[in-house]
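Notebook entry, structure prediction.
Reason for the run: the old model in the group folder had no record of what sequence produced it. Starting over properly, with the input documented here first.
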Amino acid sequence: MYQELVEKKTKLAVIGLGYVGLPIALEFAKKISVIGFDINARRIEMMKEGIDPSNELEKEAFEGCDITFTNSLDVLREATFFIVAVPTPVDEHNVPDLTPVQKASETIGKVIKKGDYVVFESTVYPGCTEEDCLPIIEKLSGLKFCTDFKMGYSPERINPGDKQHTLATIIKIVSGCDEESLETIAKVYELVVKAGVHKASSIKVAEAAKIIENTQRDLNIALMNELSIIFDKMNINTYEVLEAAGTKWNFLKFFPGLVGGHCIGVDPYYLTYKASELGYNSKVILAGRYINDNMANYVARKVVRHIISNVSDVKAAKVLVMGATFKENVSDIRNSKIADVVNELQEFFLNVDVVDPYADSAELKHEYGFELTDTIGSEYDAVIVTVCHEPYANLDEAYFSSITKPNGIIADLKGIYRGRITDRNYWSF
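New structure, fully documented this time:
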């Protein structure tokens, strides 16, 4: 398998060309022949033109790549090594939605041949690959697991907006269904991962490793958020506390904030869901999720209380929200908690303008029901800076004074302007 890929006698396919799948596909396409498969025809046409629909990669990333972009099953059949990189969201009740990985498994079941390999990268709970995806592939293909085809799991570690920690520079966890598959999968990934691979003892171990990476971060941020609520009651700035505590050599530097996106705010629910199925109800993990999921409401109500105290006609109050993506310097709005802030403000009948240099207004309208405003106004009663986008970093007090009323408040969620705003009310975590 490995030698045939290297000699381009066969092809590797990546199913799902989002923020995870496309970088993987292009990186492999610099070394071997690749098929990039996605069910979205519009996205396929964009990638054929060298355009990343996720706005993460420049046109140069497509150059010199041996890759065919397609949504055709006939083309997909040419591959013998399949990588699945589809999203794994939760529904409105925070229950894992396995529809994308199940549909991808159906696709593979229709095209897989004897001797082929399948590797899942989508974040799932331990056991999902073998218990939920494998039976679908076996049923549709008529092939027998391990005897006719091999399978593994290698969790994605793509960090949107991060140009330092890339696919090539982060150690890749790999796993297989037996020793032979583990060695083959490891060798294939070593083609593109310069940092090397870590061979997990089983598929379940690899799945669990991925899920706790984000669960650990979620819990640490939840602790910072809870501390920020406590410190706010004491009139202490949390960022100043963290700055002081950070002088100790073994202090872990996590910060408060809105926890959105497609990883930290989602993955822990996969673990707690599976734990519940096994008869254990999570306490610590769900407590952290509760805190983080409620921070948007906490921020909005902090601003509302200020407005009620300073504005005679609350329904005439104006609020500017700067930043709509889930993190800085990306266009990704998935699971953005800024939407929760906006919705909470609107529940109090406030007039809310939203701006963002990276987000797409049509996507926001489709996903959350509000659009970006074309022009920043003036006489705002509050400005909420939600993410540290690069264009926001150098804004000064004069700027905020020019767009707010004298009794307005600047809610600086990232502590960007700490110590720099004295002419207006200033609040941060």
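Summary: The chain has three domains: 2-204, 211-293, 295-429.
The old model has been moved to the deprecated folder.
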